[in-house]
Q: What sequence folds into this?
């Protein structure tokens, strides 16, 4: 990829970030929504780590069948989706 293209992509990304920061200064709810999204994303990430890496999971997790781990992961995902749905009013008002 030519360096001019990379510079253009970087410039556009920086402009987008600056615009988002300006919007956040105007409406503090944007910051709250981003924080909520980051927390929910971290929750999903931790669930995936527990699902696929038993060494990071709670003691005795190696003994649990994969079906139960998958069920627990799907429950965690359902909780995230439910919590995220509470922000739908704000997301629609934001546009």
A:
């Amino acid at each position: 990829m030519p360096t001019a293209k990379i510079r253009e992509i970087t410039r556009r990304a920086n402009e987008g970030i600056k615009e988002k920061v300006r919007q956040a200064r105007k409406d503090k709810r944007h910051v709250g929504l981003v924080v909520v999204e980051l927390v929910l994303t971290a929750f999903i990430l931790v669930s995936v780590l527990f699902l696929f890496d038993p060494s990071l999971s709670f003691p005795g997790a190696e003994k649990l069948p994969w079906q139960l781990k998958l069920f627990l992961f799907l429950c965690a995902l359902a909780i995230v989706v439910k919590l995220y749905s509470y922000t739908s009013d704000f997301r629609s008002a934001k546009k």
